[in-house]
């Protein structure tokens, strides 16, 4: 898995130079001449909707970097977005970061630092992607629990002991023991603590 | 153009007082008239009394005169009769004796009869001469005649009888006179004469008396000296003859009173009447004068109020330039009392030096055509020292016939207006400066962005190339287009720089000969001075001229002086001072601006000319940087040091005298 770096900049020279630089460090890149062009390619279900990193120039015509970012957020874009800022646009970049952007790169930049930041963002994208796959699996497992097992799980998450659960549900502690083992096996956890942790993180 | 007039009669509120005055005057007038009337009455009474007394006196005099005259002539007659008697006795013959020369004898038949009556014939009427007998025939007469004769004998003196009516004609009254003659103490007889009384009066009383009077024997017996009331001119004059008390009745024919007192009285009356008329006119004149006076007072009050209310300072000069008048506003403006100002022809303490002659300035401004009279802006000094900006107008004081008798000047205090104008100009300047700064910022930002793009791209290409070269994963075919691209990018950056340079140098300098003395004076005059700041100019005698762009250099010098004035007031010196001096050093002219401010710390002397380095709050840090640019563009330099005697900053601009 090697996330692509999307470079969105209306200046062809700058775009190409950046691509050439990232390429020299082995990062796959793809160039876009503007925010509007990039957004048009991002319809959900499109193969583009996969693990990647976006470099957005702030000063662009006709759609500025910030406007493009707003639209991405509205679509629920999960992947890291980095801003490229010129002189006098620092405050905009900071605001964008506070608003959920990953980071910003100030022009003129030290090239290798830039590449390092992009690389970090790529790793984050990868982690995000892995995370989302784990969550998908866990939720499938949760869905596979029977109705009775769901009830026992709820009682467990409330921190009750087996004996109490049996009393509440009107079944024998032995049966509770049985359900619990099934839940642990289906959700692939080894302890109640791990179960709670995974439920909190993924459910 | 007609002068607008004010109807002061409307304003005249003094009528009540006037009517009081009128009443008082009327009282006096009535009193005066009463007095005049009284004097007339008294005068008339007095005149009447005087006239009556005069009449009375005249009557008495006339009566006495009549009495004496009649008696005088009768005495003479007595004497004559005595003489005749003697003649008759001596001659013893009846031949008529020579008549004596008395008045009575001369007049025609005054003496009706005369004759000797011897003593023996005396008592018996029958023995009397014929005429005497016929007289005695009247019933009353015999006794009277007999008594007369008896009296002469007994008393030995002449005696009179009568007047007795003549027998046969009772209208003729006869006065009888008997003069006795004694011879050796023996009575010898009487000489008797009968005098016609009317003829007697005619002959005795002179004609001038008859002209005015009618005299007759008084038969009636009304009391003496009391004239009958119906005829006041009638009176009785007694003539006392022995034996015959006569009463003469005198009727003054022309009893007109004397004219002179009446004339005097008339004149006095006329004078009094004239006085009354004069009084009336005087009264009328006084009333008119009072009205005029009260109107004048109202006018004065109004004019004084107007004069006090105006905020315009007013002064009047006589034609020689001597101040005649200054109103309150003007005195307040300059803080002087009127007596400090008025009457002087020389320059006043309120007149700051260096503005020329005030009066000449006024004459100049007043001699302009009406349409061009916009006033002269000048300065006045308050007695406490601060200066006032004023706008002055002049106008001639012209009489009705066009004669100019002086000059009038008005002065409007525009200090506040000027201050506001200066403030507005300063604000505008700041606004423009900040506008320029914003524009400069904009340019700088654009410039940064425009350069960022090619430089960033260039850097990226170079780094990418470097990374690949280090990795050794690079073919020559790959390198060429990238390096070509880098070269194009470098060129692009170069073009941006060129464009900006061209923009910045768009305004070319135009060097023209510039006279520095006038230039410095002009620039110094344009800088707004804070209150209490002293600006000194030290310019050399001989003029210095050098080629310069006046507009740019003015901007630079203005900036330096403005800085100096702003810093000077923060120093310790009182009063704060800024000095501008000009000197020559070889081929260089040095314009030096010193101030009494805190000065420039040594550490900042090099950095103060850098852009965006400002020590002032609110300063932009562009001023000195631009100054230096301008001066360097003139091939000059600027030095900063500490002022030797003012202890503040000292900036010296050195400019070459030849290009």
UniProtKB/TrEMBL annotation, chain A:
Classification via InterPro entries? CheY-like_superfamily (IPR011006), Sig_transdc_resp-reg_C-effctor (IPR016032), Sig_transdc_resp-reg_receiver (IPR001789), Tscrpt_reg_LuxR_C (IPR000792), WH-like_DNA-bd_sf (IPR036388)
Q: Where is the Response regulatory domain?
A: 4-122
- What sequence ranges are listed for the domain HTH luxR-type? 138-203
Q: Please give a single GO biological process term from the UniProt record.
A: regulation of DNA-templated transcription
Entry keywords, A to Z = DNA-binding, Phosphoprotein, Transcription, Transcription regulation
Gene3D superfamilies reported in the protein's UniProt record: 3.40.50.2300, Winged helix-like DNA-binding domain superfamily/Winged helix DNA-binding domain
Q: Which domain of life is it from?
A: Bacteria
**What GO terms are given for molecular function?**
DNA binding
Query: Does Transcription regulation appear among the keywords?
Result: yes
4-aspartylphosphate PTM positions = 57
Spell out the protein name for this chain. Answer: Response regulator
- What is the originating organism of this protein? Polaromonas hydrogenivorans
From TrEMBL, chain B:
**Catalytic reaction(s) noted:** ATP + protein L-histidine = ADP + protein N-phospho-L-histidine
Where do transmembrane segments lie in this chain? 25-47, 263-282
Q: Where is the Histidine kinase domain?
A: 446-659
Residue ranges annotated for the PAC domain, each copy included: 374-426
Enzyme nomenclature, EC number: 2.7.13.3
Query: Which residues belong to any copy of the PAS domain?
Result: 298-343
- Which InterPro entries does the protein's record reference? HATPase_C_sf (IPR036890), HATPase_dom (IPR003594), His_kinase_dom (IPR005467), HisK_dim/P_dom (IPR003661), HisK_dim/P_sf (IPR036097), PAC (IPR001610), PAS (IPR000014), PAS-assoc_C (IPR000700)
> What top-level class of enzyme does the UniProt entry assign?
transferase
Q: Which UniProt keywords apply?
A: ATP-binding, Membrane, Nucleotide-binding, Phosphoprotein, Transmembrane, Transmembrane helix
Query: Which SUPFAM superfamilies would you find in this protein's record?
Result: ATPase domain of HSP90 chaperone/DNA topoisomerase II/histidine kinase (SSF55874), Homodimeric domain of signal transducing histidine kinase (SSF47384), PYP-like sensor domain (PAS domain) (SSF55785)
Q: Which Gene Ontology terms cover its molecular function?
A: ATP binding; phosphorelay sensor kinase activity
Q: What is this protein called?
A: histidine kinase
- Please report the organism this UniProt entry assigns to the protein: Polaromonas hydrogenivorans
